[in-house]
Amino acid sequence: MVSSRPEPHLKDLLSQKDFQAANQCIVLSVDEAGSQQVEMQTPNNPSAPTPQHLIDLLSAVLQTRQKRGALENLKGGDAQLLVDFLYSVLLGPASPGFKHQSRVLVTLYRLSKMSALHPQHYVLKDVVLDQRPVAVDSGGFCDVYREYYGGQYLCLRVLRVYDGGEEKFLRRYSKETILWGQTEHPNILPFYGICYLGNESFKQICLVSPWMENGNIVTYLATHDSVPRRPLVCDVACGLKYLHDNHIVHGDLKGANILVNSAGRACLADFGLASIQADKMFSSRATTTASVGCTYRWAAPELVEEDTPRLTKASDVWAVGCVFYEIFTGLLPFNECSGNAQIIRKLMRGNWPAVLDVVRWTDLDESMRDLIYGCWAEGPGGRPTCQQIVQELGADRPSSEDGGNGVRDQFAREKQRFRDAMRKNSDIQIDLARVEQILSGVCTVTSRIFASCRIRLMFY
User: Fold this and answer.
1) Residue 166 to residues 161, 202, 225, 426: CA-CA distances in angstroms?
2) Predicted local distance difference test score (pLDDT) of residue 276
3) In a 3-state reduction of DSSP, which class is residue 10?
4) What CATH number is given for 217-402 in this structure?
5) Whole-model pTM?
6) According to the model, what pLDDT value does residue 20 have?
7) Which of 44, 185, 237, 312 lies deepest, with the highest CB count within 10 Å?
8) Where is the Protein kinase domain positioned along the sequence (predicted)?
9) Number of Cα atoms under 13 Å in the Cβ half of residue 420
């Protein structure tokens, strides 16, 4: 059942009063036009609104570290319920008076990472592989398949699970879906959802996105010598700026993780090492993942030198300089090095990944060379921000190279593909009565613990 009212948003519904929470639930669905819907259902009164106090409870939880910690450590069915609830809160624009949108995302990210769960609304139905599928590519954690479904070719990244490592990889995939699923930009590979392959005894999880016939930017440029490099550099910079503006660190930028769509535009992909940087309220518990798994050719010096390195926006900027170098030259950073040990020694000596020759490489002028060198400043504080990079490239201004609204049109098409793919999903019901019990319980228990601590301190 879909409401006939204009697309309601959960926080708008929650701002209404006079509701009996015990019999209420939220239904997340997708209509025939592909738009996500948030609808309230009550057995006795289908049009009854939801309670303001539910949003008040969530706000109270998000403002206290102990309460957030209790929420983030939920397990089982309660964890799944809160994952779905927090995801529903993120749908649509923020409502007036609700100031915790980014904190909801941080909490959802952490809860998903800890519980190895993802929003049920991401799950796609009826996506099946051929009886004898052949992987077109394989990586350290997954196999990649190309399948035709819903009138288009899809890319299915199937998680490869080893004995004893299932939970670790599921956690990685769950947090990846949260961050990737929240992105919408012409220079970010669209995320369609998740599907399960296999039977009940052995299911494999895979992430679904559109298939990019042009492949990654390295192989694309190797077979398209005449393609101008600068627009692709601008695409990469704009995609990364979008992530950084939304407090997301990519963490694994390299040419192989940047795909080229049918319009010849670059899209950032592979969010397996992505992380979110919290605001000051969350800073007591860092959310940025350690650099385990980073690729040394694209790694900033601090990721090698520090005892407890963390991926940052500045380390992304170093990596994007390396990607720019790949785009202009077709060569790898530290191309003369055959192994990680050589690369690490050069990084610790303060060597650049390459010396740029503006005479040798097409489209590479002195201003671009200086920009790349700026990205390779040894200290993180000496590197430009993505905003500065985009401004230096002139990518923040409309360009005739975009073909008018070509980029926006391409993005709209990719977004519609996502909605079409999501349309197959069944309705997801969220039991608000149980959500209220969980949030109230978190507030009550943590308040008692805090009061107990204060009493103990009084006796010391």
Assistant:
1) 5, 12, 43, 27
2) 79
3) helix
4) 1.10.510.10
5) 0.81
6) 40
7) 237
8) 130-400
9) 14
